[in-house]
Predict the 3D structure of the following.
Amino acid sequence: MGDEAKMSKQRDRDEFITIAAKEGIPVDVARKLLRYAATLHRLAELECSSEAADRDRVSCPRDIPCLCQDYGSYNGDHGTVPRIAVHGARTQRRVETLCADLPGIIPVFQEDPRGAVLKLRVPSGRTNDWGHTGICVP
């Protein structure tokens, strides 16, 4: 990654923390959201580009809503799902839990790694994405 790309990435992170602070999100929570967004983005990239991600399967976990129905392996009893999907679902749950303590902050998840995979709807209605969905978490 070139110096210009690193500076742009850091600028995006700094911009998010600034916006988050104005929306009442504590800095430590904003940093956790940045970390979770990076994880979700990496998982979305792997899901799109790696057949190996689909072949590495585990039993449908009981601690999150059933995933195996989405993967066609549900036959009246739980089947198997890609490990990467379990990791993504658990990370999304962490984001939802984190945002539940913040009044008016609603996470929006998107699976396409070409953009922000995590956005936040904020009470002010502010957006910084092209679709006017919310604030991008880089």
Remarks:
- The longest strand covers residues 106-109.
